[in-house]
Design the sequence.
């Protein structure tokens, strides 16, 4: 190991380089976006009525979204069109709608609106900061369970589900943010069939990365809606997805899958909020994705070609610099957008601080925990998707160096 | 007057014509939509970064919407860009968000979330059915006041505002749905300055038709946000608008105006729900509307050219068939999308039924009242915007006839 003095000298050398690199958020690169530029003109004046006969410019069409869009993304999620709602951009907004209606009106079979009593939601840690922010803003209390290589720690979940204040669980089932872990089939069956204190216990599964594989070695767990149905708990789950990391991050589509009864219920409430989503934007997606060589899978393979070298270089540099040092562990996800790095010593916030001083912006330490508080001060979320490969490589050298320096200090 | 026997004979003649006409909803015509087809390709790969420097395809940009869009629609609403939020399609959704957050968290200066106590909202009747449906779905209680030629009946409003359960008023200030009435300046000043029992009394002004004039004889009342500010109640009002009846009904933009403090507050909460609206769609609007000859006013004048003859024929036929009979009165709006017809006898539902039998679909009688219950059974909302002129003429002959027959029965 290098001495602290050596590391501090190296720090000065890095500092003089005046770097400005960003590994902060899970954003696609411009090269990823370029793949979907055909979407900009995929609907013309020749396409003003969809194949199913919906006039795209006028109001009618329904709050569930275009039939063609529900079919396309239903196929992607392994459900039927009547188990789908396709909205505007942002699946987070659809999660928010569901969680809001649960508070104000309750779920379909709720004895009472959730606002009428304490409402706790289980979240996994490390997890996704926007889930935590949303739940807190709405007034939910969060209870944490550990994310494991098999998904949420089910022993803990099953115990918490027996608390009548606990109304549900909110997590990322595939290529989890930030660990990259995917629920095992066993976890899914336990979630689908477990005993719960309340009849309206709900799984909010943010399946943001279900088709975001980095190679042909894919995590494809059992269909969660089907597992719930086969366990006699068809109405237990809502599953969310979006094209934000397939087409355009800002101009994608959010969608959700649930039992037909749940879809009827929530569509009825959403129908009080608006006439329906932007049908022209939905049809742009339908026409573009259906025309793409290989369809959605073909587009995601093209993204993987851009993304995999970046994930490979993250692992290569961490292995080269930190392998065998005992200073840190990190994940090697098969898909998704993140690598999760855990320092052995409680120095995550110091690593992020040092990296910032050297011109490498990282996600704030603690962001993967509710209220930004990582009890071990060990977890750092790495987002290699946005910068060019050479910058990822340079940024990771800095990160690995900062782990060494922070640990030595 | 015709005898009942004559009218019944005429009924049989109309019946045999097998008409299929629709005056049910306030939808633009295809000719209106055609005016905005240039929007489909107003953003190309040459425009991937907005003039203000926002990368349109990636996430960042903010929950308030593109600066260019806030400027454009702020100008239209007579407010500044920092008094604006521009969202996705549907201003109703923005109203829903505001009303939901008020329940769950309260308004900026609320002593408590509105869900914690009875929450009543004043609505005007006749009024807009979607407002009633939304308020009811969210759990608000509605109290009605009469819509007058000067706007909401302010004597009634001022009295209700002294009830601590009354949290606000929800209405259409300009070319009201369905009466076409516009608030007078006096009404605006009374709303802006009136005494209220609660400090967080809120005016929800659905200004859907502010630029939807039928001719150069325009209703342009005093700026409602400025009136509230000058009355020392800057945070009392939220004003909503959309391009649904300017560009595409299904693919427009919704927006809202309020004091900078209110915008900061609600944007903070909306920022928990999503990263931001579809920026590509916003830039499509900006580029298209700024390039349109005469801008937004030019586009609205082109719509007026299509709409005015339809409104003229509605008035002409009602005057010819019912003028001087004492059987009905109706409005002659200077803008907006509706004509409001009141039968003298309580026969509105029978008129709608008879018209339906003769192949003319009208908005269900009662729809302009909460829960579809018009206490006088007299109000019928006529929507002449969607059908071609000749069909509006034919439909109105049937409507006038049905008023005669229902009144004679």
Sequence:
């Amino acid at each position: 190991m290098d001495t602290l003095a050596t590391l501090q000298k190296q720090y000065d050398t890095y500092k003089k380089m005046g770097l400005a690199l960003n590994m902060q958020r899970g954003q696609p690169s411009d090269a990823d976006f370029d793949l979907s530029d055909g979407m900009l003109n995929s609907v013309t004046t020749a396409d003003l009525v969809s194949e199913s006969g919906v006039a795209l410019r006028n109001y009618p069409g329904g709050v569930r979204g275009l039939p063609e869009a529900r079919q396309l993304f239903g196929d992607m999620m392994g459900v039927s069109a009547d188990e789908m709602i396709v909205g505007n951009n942002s699946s987070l907004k659809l999660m928010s709608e569901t969680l809001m209606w649960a508070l104000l009106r309750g779920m379909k079979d709720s004895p009472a609106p959730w606002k009428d009593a304490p409402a706790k939601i289980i979240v996994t840690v490390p997890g996704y900061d926007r889930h935590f922010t949303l739940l807190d803003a709405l007034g939910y209390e969060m209870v944490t369970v550990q994310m494991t290589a098999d998904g949420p720690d089910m022993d803990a979940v099953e115990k918490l589900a027996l608390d009548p204040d606990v109304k549900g669980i909110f997590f990322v089932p595939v290529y989890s943010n930030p660990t990259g872990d995917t629920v095992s089939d066993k976890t899914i069956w336990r979630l689908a069939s477990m005993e719960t204190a309340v009849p309206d216990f709900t799984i909010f599964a943010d399946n943001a990365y279900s088709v975001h594989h980095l190679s042909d070695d894919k995590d494809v767990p059992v269909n969660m809606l089907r597992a719930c149905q086969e366990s006699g708990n068809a109405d237990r789950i809502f599953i969310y997805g979006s094209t934000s990391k397939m087409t355009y991050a800002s101009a994608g589509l959010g969608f959700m899958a649930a039992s037909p009864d749940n879809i009827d219920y929530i569509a009825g409430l959403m129908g009080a909020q608006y006439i329906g989503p932007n049908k022209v934007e939905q049809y742009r997606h339908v026409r573009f994705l259906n025309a793409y060589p290989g369809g959605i899978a073909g587009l995601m393979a093209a993204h993987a070609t851009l993304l995999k070298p970046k994930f490979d270089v993250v692992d290569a540099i961490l292995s080269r610099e930190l392998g065998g040092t005992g200073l840190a562990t990190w994940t090697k996800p098969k898909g998704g957008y993140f690598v999760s790095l855990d320092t052995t010593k409680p120095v995550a916030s110091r690593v992020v601080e040092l990296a910032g001083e050297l011109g490498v912006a990282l996600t704030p330490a603690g962001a993967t925990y509710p209220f930004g508080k990582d009890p071990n001060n060990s977890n750092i979320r790495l987002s290699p998707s946005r910068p060019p490969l050479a910058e990822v490589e340079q940024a990771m050298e800095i990160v690995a160096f900062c782990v060494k320096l922070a640990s030595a200090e």
